[in-house]
Amino acid sequence: MYIKYSIEEIKEKLKEILSEERYLHSIGTMEKAVELAQKFNCDVKKAQLAGLLHDCAKCFPKDELLKYKDNFEDCEKLSEKTWHAPVGAIIAKKDWGVDDEEILSSIRWHTVGKIGMSEFEKIIFIADKIETRTRELKFREKIEKALNKNNNLDEALLKSFKITIKSLLKRKLPICYQTVDVYNNLLNLVQNS
Q1: CB neighbours of residue 66 within 10 Å
Q2: Under DSSP, is residue 114 helix (H, G, I), strand (E, B) or coil?
Q3: List of domains in the chain
Q4: What is the DSSP string of 78-146?
Q5: Could you tell me if 96 and 3 are in contact, meaning their C-beta atoms sit under 8 angstroms apart?
Q6: Among 24, 37, 64, 88, which lies 20 to 30 A Cα-Cα from 127?
Q7: Which residues of the chain have a pLDDT value below 70?
Q8: Are 51 and 34 in contact (CB under 8 A)?
Q9: Is the entire prediction scored with pTM above 0.90?
């Protein structure tokens, strides 16, 4: 087993530490992760757990997140919106008892991404972007269209990064160089497949 708590126990505990919207987002991500895991023949129970816990540190106060700053990539330090991902992986292991490295890695990289993501990591990343409980339809549809076009996770991931990068540019927010590297790598993979 990957964890010391049941899914129902985790849901109850998350209700206490997350905002209502973030809790609904976590439930939605869990549901979408299960759906995608079934579609792409990945471990459904692991996807359920990773989807549910991916934002477990999202509502931590800034000073609490900064206690873990030695675990941030340099580019993650540019935006506090990314801090919850590395902290979430640590908390999932330390406080929730998650011992599966793929689950922990999917939580760790669900914001900035990384080159060479596993199918499982891609599923959690995409599920976070296209869950139906809190994500806008016009945003979801673009990624889902790319996903359904050729049943290809890389195309959906590429579309997600395009949308994210455009949004960051429009809002004049910093872009992690690792995200740009992942985008370029995915663009090359998709164009040459």
Answers
A1: 15
A2: coil
A3: 7-136 (1.10.3210.10)
A4: G-GGGTHHHHHHHHHHHTT----HHHHHHHHTTTT--TT--HHHHHHHHHHHH-TTTS-HHHHHHHHHH
A5: yes
A6: 64
A7: 1-2
A8: yes
A9: yes
